[in-house]
Specification:
Keywords: Signal. The structure is a single chain. The protein is of the alpha+beta class. The chain starts with a helix and ends with a helix.
Length: 173
């Protein structure tokens, strides 16, 4: 059953990324060590998704730039250059638990059934519960937050080096 679910996730990612590439100025590549699917966009946006992860690009604007991406499981490593275009419009990662809005940033989002974890390597990221987008926290370099279904306030923490290393190794970093 697990193999079928992973295969379905890979197929969903391939279909979503292919349709995104047709509507935007993005191309998809595959990396095998570690196994990743990578979406490179003309404006410099790069989304690296674990092979078993699911990613659905969120509609391009009139200029063909992605507005965001919806992540259903596993992890994604996001690189957004500090360009005028990205700075003006921003970019959002949507998960079942959280919304992460960014500009000029390098960060990772890890999604499980129980929670969404966001870690910032460079730049600043605003994170809010998906059902309470006006109550956000801002993460800086080295900081992370775990968002689950509880109603507790989001707590920004400096992540221990071992947790950072464990997440970033999944992307070959």
């Amino acid at each position: 059953m697990r193999t079928a679910a992973r295969l379905a996730a890979v197929v969903a990612l391939t279909v979503a990324a292919s349709s995104a590439g047709a509507q935007t100025r993005c191309t998809e590549t595959t990396r095998f060590d570690p196994p990743l699917r990578i979406l490179h966009c003309a404006d410099g946006l790069t989304l690296e998704v674990e092979r078993a992860g699911s990613l659905r690009p969120v509609g391009p604007d009139g200029d063909g730039h992605l507005k965001g991406a919806e992540i259903g499981g596993n992890a994604v490593f996001v690189t957004i250059p500090a360009s005028r275009r990205v700075r003006r419009d921003g970019f959002q990662i949507l998960t079942p638990h959280a919304v992460a809005s960014v500009r000029g940033t390098v960060y990772a989002v890890d999604v499980t059934r129980a929670r969404t974890s966001v870690f910032v390597e460079q730049g600043r990221v605003d994170v809010a519960r998906r059902d309470a987008p006006l109550i956000a926290v801002t993460l800086g370099p080295g900081e992370g937050v775990d968002v689950d279904e509880s109603r507790d306030a989001l707590e920004v923490r400096r992540w221990p080096q071992e947790r950072v290393r464990s997440l970033l190794e999944r992307f070959g970093r």
